[in-house]
Amino acid sequence: MNRLYIGTRRYSSWSMRGWLAVKLADLEVEEVAIQLVGGNTPEVKAISPSGTVPLLEHEGNRIWDSLAIIEYCAELAPRLWPADRRARAVARAVSAEMHAGFRDLRSDMPMNLGAAHPGEGRTAGALANIARIEQLWADTRGLFGGDYLFGDFCAADAMFAPVVARFATYGPELTSASKEYCAAVLAHPLVEAWHSAAAAEPASWRLERYELFQPTPAGTA
Q1: Non-local CB neighbours of 89 within 8 Å, separated by 6+ positions
Q2: What pLDDT, on the 0 to 100 scale, is given for residue 66?
Q3: What is the distance between the alpha carbons of residues 6 and 19, in angstroms, rounded to a whole number?
Q4: Per residue in 108-122, is it b (16+ CB within 10 Å) or e — as a string?
């Protein structure tokens, strides 16, 4: 059976990226949501080789990393990356930078959909990360046009969708162009669907340290 294992939608930024890729590729999978209890959720460790989610099981293949899931989905649906070779190369580069970097932002402004923590998390490191992200967004939208980073909503936008969610929660100062991009991402039907599903999760799935704004090390969600 084809399955996509994801963590608590309210918190799991990496699950959101993998889910968006699967939806963009129109893969038919059963979604299995696991309540995260921290960085070592037993149910996740029991099913995932890396002990993390998302995990995609599709046609006998098992893929347990968000960017790898995106690349797998793109092999089945090449539209996940821009058609133009130059744009495609840049899209992969900015996606890899997101995948590997911005640890201060991820640690100091953990994703929490539906929460409001305006002004929190504005450490020097997080603000430096935000400045770099805004520059990336300005450069790609300036070069390739459109509401999104490379024209149509693509894998690169999926990689940055959790960043947009963080900005909605913590309200850092952004340029008008960045605000326009954030609004476009939040209005995308798939992003709206993820947010709606997150809002429908049981309240018992919420973690006090996130709800009371007690940041934890990057990568736990």
Answers
A1: none
A2: 97
A3: 8
A4: bbbbbbebebeebbb
Torsion angle of alpha carbons 182, 70, 153, 25, nearest 10°?
Answer: -130
Q: Residue 90, SS3?
A: helix
Please report which confidence band the pLDDT of residue 214 belongs to, taking 50, 70 and 90 as the band edges.
low
Q: Please report, as a single letter, which amino acid is at residue 214.
A: Q
Average pLDDT over residues 107-130: 96
**CA pair distance 24, 30, nearest whole angstrom:** 15
Residue 80 and residue 73 in contact, taking contact as beta carbons nearer than 8 Å: yes
- Token pair for 129: 């990360």
Tell me whether residue 198 is exposed, middle or buried, using C-beta atoms within 10 angstroms of its C-beta: 0 to 12, 13 to 18, 19 or more: buried
Peptide bond into 54 cis (omega under 30): yes
Q: Residues 41, 47, 64, 76: is their CA dihedral positive or negative?
A: negative
In the DSSP assignment, the letter for residue 31 is: E
Per-residue pLDDT tens over the stretch 119-148: 999 999 999 999 999 999 999 999 998 999
Residue type, 215: P
What is the spatial distance between Cα 45 and Cα 158, in angstroms, rounded to a whole number? 25
Edge-to-edge strands of the sheet including 61-63?
Answer: 30-34, 3-7, 55-58, 61-63
Helix (H) / strand (E) containing 63: strand 61-63
pLDDT > 80? residue 48? yes
Q: Express each pLDDT in 21-47 by its tens digit.
A: 999 999 999 999 999 997 789 999 999
